[in-house]
Design goal:
alpha/beta; binds S-adenosylmethionine; 39% helix
């Protein structure tokens, strides 16, 4: 692995400092197609209230705000650098009160129950501790009928493709079956797992 790729990979799970900012900007571009394809798989009403967990550099927040111009979009991330970058990326919408970003973790979501129509998580699920508890937390903050979508550019498929990354950082790739079981264990009665090449989407409906 070359040094640039290593810098980026070691900053993916909790971006910090200069290389964190570079990585966040790159991720906005690199995850654009995954995100845009994922957002086509769920309906987002014009007045939807949405949460993006692990919002990184903030591009998904902007996409959600475009889809729900009469709604409100929230972002959380464990990284203070990500929170700053996401606010800067969405400066105009933040000023207008359409987007709000704060520090927070999937394990301790700073929102009341039954708040959101949609919760998204793009390229972040690999890094979460205690995933069943995180998904339970998400189910609680969703409204009845609300949807949670996980979007990932990679999953565990036995090909060995993820081994190089696993040697560099603490990261947990799931199989499609594991994803489905995590959603079911967290109480999502209706779950759907969609594989598209190396990509995977998992959708739970409350
Ligand atoms: C690979 S980046 C993806 C960022 C963005 N979603 C994107 O697609 O460009 C993963 C992000 O998830 C955040 N993160 C990791 N664990 C988290 C957790 N438990 N709760 C909230 N955010 C988390 C990291 O700080 C980082 O900004």
């Amino acid at each position: 692995m070359n040094w640039l790729k290593r810098k980026r990979i070691t900053n993916a799970g909790d971006p910090k400092g200069f290389w964190g900012v570079v990585t966040l900007a790159n991720m906005n571009d690199d995850h654009a197609e995954l995100t845009d394809e994922g957002l086509k798989k769920i309906e987002i009403k014009k007045d939807a209230v949405c949460l993006d967990i692990g919002c990184g550099g903030g591009r998904t927040l902007a996409r959600l705000s475009n889809l729900a111009p009469q709604g409100k979009i929230y972002g959380v991330d464990i990284s203070g650098t990500a929170v700053k970058c996401a606010k800067l990326y969405n400066a105009a919408a933040v000023r207008k009160g359409l987007i709000s970003v704060k520090k927070g973790s999937a394990l301790a979501l700073p929102f009341p129950e039954n708040t959101f129509d949609t919760v998204t998580a793009v390229e972040t699920f690999y890094f979460w501790d205690n995933k069943v508890q995180c998904v339970k937390n998400i189910k609680e903050v969703l409204k009845d009928g609300g949807k949670f979508i996980v979007m990932l550019d990679a999953y565990e498929d036995g090909s060995g493709d993820n081994e190089e990354i696993k040697r560099e950082i603490k990261i947990d790739f799931n199989t499609p079956e594991e994803l489905e079981n995590i959603f079911k264990s967290a109480g999502f009665a209706k779950t759907e797992v969609i594989k598209e090449g190396k990509r995977i989407y998992a959708i739970g409906t409350k």
